[in-house]
Write a structure and sequence with these properties.
One of its GO terms (molecular function) is transaminase activity. Pfam families: Aminotran_3. This is Transaminase. Keywords: Pyridoxal phosphate. This protein is α/β, with parallel strands linked by helices. The protein has 2 domains: about 190 residues, Aspartate Aminotransferase, domain 1; about 250 residues, Aspartate Aminotransferase, domain 2. Helix content is about 40%, strand content about 15%. The longest helix has 24 residues. The protein is globular and about 65 Å long. The termini are close together. The model has no long low-confidence stretch (mean pLDDT about 95). It binds 4'-deoxy-4'-aminopyridoxal-5'-phosphate. 4'-deoxy-4'-aminopyridoxal-5'-phosphate binds next to helix 5.
């Protein structure tokens, strides 16, 4: 890679992004009452001089306040995997919120049992409870796992992401021991007091860590998706299940992103048998919603424990969790939008996206790898594809990533910030994918000219 050429192209695309976004630039400049000038600090993670401000979004299309239209492969980093504002979800929201009234009344609605039954059909877990975010689903699953096992620690894979869950911000340090994830903000205590860590695909390490007998649960994605996609090697997930069972440790599958693998995520696609499963983002069709599922046995063990306050102040739940509005939106999304048929369409398009990227990378002989998980494709600046989180983290190249994001955005295509990741929604078309393939090919041609 010619770094001087890359820098020149990045500067050119940055200037072009600034030129294309005068209104966004002004709005950002005026946002003096926001911490970091944005509603949420991670919105500053944008390739370019300022974030684009949202005007409208429908299906696989987004427009910004400067009137630019984009094919959206970011899809709210999975929150809009159902497409932006699907009509049927909008109607369900309208019905619940405006026609019937009552978004949050501390009373159950009948939609919740429908959603619970559908989640059981898809993922296999027998009992369900709701949250508003995947982070909270993970937090509450962890608390339940600690309560039922009486053990203090949680094990996660290095460079996984499970939301702002204190226990999960741990990596394997240079000396091989657990260490805080660099940059972690305000940890409540030394993370090694609460957590153990293993690299993804490393069963030997997992076995050594579980042998301490103090791990309540392994919290993991069946494939890492937040440090590039890192797929499980043959036998790895079966090994995880065998080891967790052997050591009396519960297994929590976080399917928030791996839901892209199919209607029942990796759990159904690969026949996995977790004790708990967490999910958020996509299931509400854009309305905040999350959920966690438990095996029937685990649920009855927990409900039988008179010492656990599962109803009031015990630390599991939130006032707005399971509210009528988010449950109505989740029902509409699962019943009508992210259906089995939709996944077939999305996966076929993702295959098309993958072949396009693979062909362009091949044409320009770049040492990159392309990985796909159902409806989600990601490329990484390393070949062969990284097999652990640490290897994938080492393949990061911010300037190169920023150049590609900006080149695409300046030509009407959005990828997910933090990733070279593209997700398909039910409204994505083959033409959208082919547009990406063409523009991506032009970017690589300029890069390697
Ligand atoms: N789990 C996984 C696998 C995620 O990717 C994320 C967010 N990227 C979360 C949990 C947290 O989701 P949220 O920020 O919506 O709580």
């Amino acid at each position: 890679m010619d770094r001087a050429r890359l820098q020149h192209l990045l500067d050119r695309e940055t200037a072009e992004a600034a030129r294309r976004g005068p209104r966004s630039r002004d709005a950002y400049g005026r946002a003096e009452h926001l911490f970091g000038r944005v509603p949420m600090t991670w919105m500053n993670k944008t390739a370019g001089p300022f974030p684009r401000y949202l005007a409208t979004a429908r299906g696989a299309r987004v427009t910004d306040i400067d009137g630019q239209e984009y094919i959206d492969f970011c899809l709210g980093d999975t929150g809009a995997m159902a497409g932006h504002s699907p009509r049927v979800v909008a109607e369900a929201v309208q019905r619940r919120f405006a026609d019937l009234g009552g978004a949050t009344a501390m009373l159950p609605t009948e939609d919740a049992e429908w959603v619970g039954a559908e989640l059981t059909r898809r993922f296999g877990l027998a009992r369900w409870s709701f949250s508003l975010t995947a982070t909270d689903a993970n937090r509450w699953a962890i608390r339940l796992a600690r309560a039922v096992t009486g053990r203090p620690k949680i094990l996660v894979n290095a460079y996984s992401y499970h939301g702002s869950v204190d226990e999960s911000l741990v990596v394997v340090g240079p000396d091989g021991a657990g260490a805080p994830r660099p940059g972690n903000v305000g940890a409540p205590c030394d993370v090694t007091l609460t957590s153990r860590v293993a690299e993804f695909n490393d069963l030997d390490r997992l076995e050594r860590e579980l042998a301490h007998g103090d791990v309540a649960a392994v919290l993991m994605e069946p494939a890492l998706t937040n440090i590039g996609i890192v797929l499980p090697e043959p036998g790895y997930l079966a090994g995880v299940r065998e080891l967790t069972r052997a050591h009396g440790t519960l297994l929590i599958n976080d399917e928030t992103h791996t839901f892209s693998a199919g209607p029942g995520g990796c759990t159904a696609a690969w026949g996995l048998e977790p004790d708990l499963l967490t999910i958020g983002k996509a299931i509400g069709g854009g309305v905040p919603a999350g959920a966690y599922g438990l095996s029937a046995d685990l649920a009855s063990r927990l409900l039988g424990r008179a010492d656990l306050d599962l109803v009031d102040m015990g630390g599991v739940g939130g006032t707005l969790a399971g509210n009528a509005l988010s449950v109505a939106a989740t029902r509409a999304t699962l019943e009508h939008v992210l259906t089995d048929a939709a996944f077939t369409h999305m996966t076929a398009l993702s295959e098309r996206f993958e072949s396009g990227v693979r062909a362009a990378v091949g044409t320009h002989a770049l040492p990159w790898s392309v990985t796909r998980l159902g409806a989600r494709t990601e490329y990484r600046f390393a070949d062969p594809a990284p097999r652990t989180g640490a290897e994938s983290a080492a393949a990061a190249d911010t300037a190169l990533e920023d150049f590609l994001h900006l080149y695409l955005a300046n030509r009407g295509i959005l990828l997910t910030p933090f990733h070279n990741m593209a997700l398909m929604c039910p409204d994505t078309t083959a033409r959208d994918v082919d547009t990406h393939t063409a523009v991506f090919g032009e970017a690589l041609a300029e890069l390697t000219a």
